[in-house]
Amino acid sequence: MKRAVGGLLALFVLLVLWSQRPASRSGEATPPASPAYPPTAPMPAPILPLGDELLQSYAQPGQTPEQDLIAVAHLMENYLLLTKEAARRPLSANEEWARVWRGADGTGERFLSDQHPALNDRGQVVDRWGVPLFFHAVGRGRFEVRSAGPDGMLWTEDDLHRNSDGTFRRGNDLNPLSLVDDPAP
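The chain above was modelled as a monomer; its predicted structure follows.
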């Protein structure tokens, strides 16, 4: 008798479980439910160096050459602000800026990835025309940046020069005549 009651109880439990299962369509087997844990999260995006973020639109068609130089100046300012090592030695050459932005300054802080379009294969920071930028240290963390412009030659009238105060010089204002070169009246 105990066996019959135990069998009936087991049959009852199976019927209850059977009635609670999800209904399948036209004889399809119901796939087992996937476990809720561990949750599947999307892989995080790689963290880009700060310079890659600041120069993300560098030399793009919707960006002007002035905006390119403003972005480079912001990268310079951020580097000087965040890296105390830079205060001990002045930076002025293009290759020095490219080197420190790639993390080769002793601090190991990378500000720009090697594949960034602002860098050429010779380790120089270039303008949108692929010509190395000219950096000029004015003093006390102030710098000027000059692009050769579309003709690809520095010191011509199509150059674009960003002053340390954020203003720009172009055309005749770029290369004023010195006292020696001043033509006689």
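The mean pLDDT is 78.
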